[in-house]
Here is the input.
Amino acid sequence: MDTPMLKISNTVTLDENEVEIAAIRAQGSGGQKVNKVSAAIHLRFDITASSLPAYYKEKLLSLKDKRITKEGIIVIKSQQHRKRELNRKEVFERLVKLIGSVAVTQKKRLPTKPTKGAVKRRLHSKKKHAAKKQLRKKVERE
Here is the structure.
């Protein structure tokens, strides 16, 4: 039987066997079946031991994200839904989104200069403001 694959991008996929999943009891206030059902999902994914390309591993390990431990393990928990299957699906979606986010490169910002007219208008308004303040000053008598 083929193991399900998570699609990260067009070229990168991840085997679901590399992800460790545990069903746990959800936190929070109680209700019916709260102490009987383990509907929340706890996901652990070891970045260094995964089959991800080196570029992805490098970028993920350099991320400042509270979901990534010092040992390089991604920990994601979902207890949003009442059904285990929905929480499982959400956890995988969050993992794919996190891994996919490192592949997007930020466009380099080009510094811009203000136009001559904008500089002129700014200096003119500064002079007007300074003149107004000057008029409010106490008059010194000689």
Notes: The chain has a mean pLDDT of 86. The first strand starts at residue 5 and ends at 7.
